[in-house]
Amino acid sequence: MPGWNEKAVPDQSGRIAVVTGANSGLGYVVARELARKGARVILACRSEVRGNAAADRIVGEVPGAIAEFARLDLGDLGSVREFAASYRYDYLDLLVNNAGVMALPYGTTADGFETQFGVNHLGHFALTGLLLPTLLATPGARVVSVSSEMHAVANIDIADLNSERLYRRWIAYARSKTANLLFVHELARRLAAHDADVVAAAAHPGYAATNLQGAAPRMEGRRLVGRVMELGNRVFAQSAEAGALPVLYAATAPDVRPDSFTGPSFLMWRGAPAPSWRAPWTLNDAAGERLWAASEQLTGVAYDALKG
Question: How does pLDDT run across 118-132, given as a tens digit for each residue?
Fold first, then answer.
C-alpha cells in the first residue's frame, strides 16, 4: 500500500460501477478515476441537475469516459426501489455506497427515519439488497461502503436506532457510521456462508475537504460555524482526491479482503491507503445480526439470496 495512488487503479475496461453521491467530493473523484480506467460509471445522485453536470464534467475531463446519471434519493425508499428497478444491465461489478449526510439538525426521511441513520445506513442497505441478485451474478463483484473514523465515537443503540429518545447530531452521525461497518461485517459473513463471489469491504477518507462539513451550517444559516468548517478544510484536511484513495483501493485493489477497513495511513487522518483501526463493536456478530434484522424490517428489503 505505501505510495499507492490513483495511477495504481487496475484496468476497469468492461466493468460497470455504481457510485452513490457522485456529483461532488469523494464520490465524484472515485467515479472520475474509475471512468479514467475504462469503467462505465453510473452516478447515482439525488439532483438531476448536479448529477448530469458531474457526468458531463467527467466526460470533459477524461477523453472517452463513459459516465451516466441515474436519479437516486437515499432518503426515500421509493426512489431506491425505482433506481434498482430501472437498472438496465445484467451485471454489476462494483457498488460504492458513498453518499452521506453529517451532523444535520434533527429531521426525518420520506419514510420517517432519522435522517442520518436513514440516508447513511438504511438507504444503502436497501440499495445493496435490491441490487444483490445482479451482484451475485457477476464474477468478482464488490460492494464498498464508506464509513468514517468518527464511528469510534458511538456504538449503535439497537433499542433507539432512530434517536427518538435523545438526538445529538454527532452521536447520531457516529452511530450511522458504525452501522455502515456492522453492515459490511454481517454482509461479508453471509456472503462467505453462501460461498458467494462477492467481496464486501469498507473504507474511510480520513479528514478530507468536501462539501459534507458545510452542509449543516448552510441549512441552519450558521455562518460562523460554516466559516470555521471552511478554515478547518483549508488548514487541516487533505484534498478530496487524497481522501478518495482509500475508497478507490477498497474498490479495485486485487488483495482487498472481505470485511476489511481501509483508510489513510497517518493517524486515520491523511496519507496513502492502509489497513485502518476499527472499534471492536463493529466486529460483533450478534450486533450485526440484530442490526441486519432491524434493517430488513424497517426497509422491507429482504436479502433472500443469502438466507438459509
Answer: 999 999 999 999 999
